[in-house]
Amino acid sequence: MTATSATKRKYEKPTWTNIVSQYHNPELSKSIWQIVNTFIPYMVLWYLMYRSLEVGYWLTFLVAIPTSLFMVRIFVLQHDCGHNSFFRSRKANNWVGMACSIFTFVPFYYWRRTHALHHAAAGDLDHRGVGDFYTMTVDEYAAKTKWEQFKYRLYRNPIVMFMIAPTVVFVVGYRFDFLKRKDWKRERKGLLWTNLGLLAVAVVMTLLIGLPSYLIVQLTIVFLGAGIGTWFFFVQHNYEDAYWASGDDWDYTTAALQGSSYYKLPRILQWFTGSIGFHHIHHLSPKIPNYNLEKAHNENEIFQTPVTLTLRTGFETTNLSLWDDENRKMINFRQYNAMKRAGQQDPTEKLPVEATVEAA
Q1: Dihedral pair phi/psi, residue 115, rounded to 5°
Q2: What is the pTM assigned to this prediction?
Q3: Tell me: the pLDDT tens digits for 175-221?
Q4: Which residue among 77, 206, 286, 313 is buried most deeply as judged by most CB within 10 Å?
Q5: What CA–CA distance (Å, rounded) separates 237 from 80?
Q6: Are the beta carbons of 334 and 146 closer than 8 angstroms?
Q7: For residues 289 and 296, is the Cβ–Cβ distance under 8 A?
Q8: Backbone φ, ψ for residue 136 (5° rounding)
């Protein structure tokens, strides 16, 4: 994989705490304008998708592509509200975040809490599996049974991870997450309200345009939008020079600046994704509104040396599924199998760089 990566090092906290604070303050006019230029186009395109059914589903699907990108952008606004960075008022963040959840199918309070856990432990081997993509180490994978290895391979398969699973999770899984974590009272209550809101929308739309039309339009948007959003979240933490550590070796700042990539996107995609490509800065300081991330990046040299991915190099990360703790990098299953073919009794032993290159 071709990517520009910084020298792995720990960053001194004083070098960035004073820097990021100047970008924290949300601007009401910018936040309101983002709501206007996101929700109105989404609803117009949703209507056009419905009308396009009279022509054929092929046209509906084509219109669904920009519509799903607006769904992703709505989720970015919800994401900012979850970090209380979109408005100064916590109540405003909560209300707008809840409103966004009716469009994204993602329960606001429940997701906010799991996402906070992700931010608190990104790249921490001791705290995986909540709010992130579960990643096994080479040692862990080698110790699994053939059946367990098959299940993990299936889970990490791109078709499952970016096409099947996102739609299932967004449409079905999130509807029943209130059965989990019964001590999360506010989150469970918010999830139930989200479910009721989605049900109300479904009933109204069924009465207006019919259930088949509603399902075709909405499920197409969710299929594309959830897949695209999942991809962006995945690629920002899953690349060859990713950061994983455990115990006292784990460091929050290093995890942010080295374990979250700068996804350098074309301007149009950067707009649709709310500049979330500046993910290293976002993880360093989630209080920065999305519209201040690029400014923080451009004005501070310390933020300009993370792992940099492009559309091309981003796709090269898709098959990286195991963390090789010995060589300190992500590897794919083909590289793992090369370890075994190289005659190692224990595939977790350190693989020479030359062998890794030949296996690739």
Answers
A1: -70, -35
A2: 0.88
A3: 988 777 788 889 999 999 999 999 999 999 999 999 999 999 999 99
A4: 77
A5: 19
A6: no
A7: no
A8: -90, 150
